[in-house]
Amino acid sequence: MNEAALTSQAPDIARAQADMRTAYWHAAFGVLSSALVWAVAAGVTALGQPQQAVWTLLIGGMFIFPLSMVMAKLAGRTGMHEKSNPLGRLAMLSTVGLLVGCALALGVATQKLEWFFPTMLLVIGLRYLVFTKVYGLCIYWSCGLALATAGLVLGLLLAAPSSELKAAGPLLGAATGAVIEALFGALLLRQGRARAR
């Protein structure tokens, strides 16, 4: 593909990214909904039920997109991108990757329950790197890398944990996901509000 063809595609990609940002308010509501699911999972873990917290995160995750759509609509956005937007397909493909990652994390949990949340931090962090292209926002690099790094660090800590750290691992992992996503969700919400003015 020659340089002229690449240059002609750039405005199309920029328009597609703008459509995604406008429809979903930079995906801020999706990130905030995800933070809420992480927080509920942390709460379940704090009640001494880490196995149920695994299912809380997985089942709760199925409601993130519908909840974010409702929130976007309440905020005056469409909550749906244009059907012709090619980045919608990329976002869908990233969802397939997410589902595969969830299955992997569930498999890991059957062997070492404390590694489930670090694995999910990695999986979701890697998905957010795709959002850099989908939304055209560099903040998703920071969000994705923060989640993935937290997952790696927590995984390393839990590789040979003390009994206390092993017991606290699920709560630490779920709480970490909640805090990171709440922080970036708030930043995205603010960024979307600023661009809407």
UniProtKB/TrEMBL annotation:
Keywords: Membrane, Transmembrane, Transmembrane helix. It comes from the Bacteria. The chain crosses the membrane at residues 23-47, 53-75, 87-109, 115-131, 138-159, 171-189. InterPro entries: DUF7010. Signal peptide: none annotated. It holds the Pfam family DUF7010. This is DUF7010 family protein. It comes from Pelomonas dachongensis. The lineage of its organism: Bacteria, Pseudomonadati, Pseudomonadota, Betaproteobacteria, Burkholderiales.
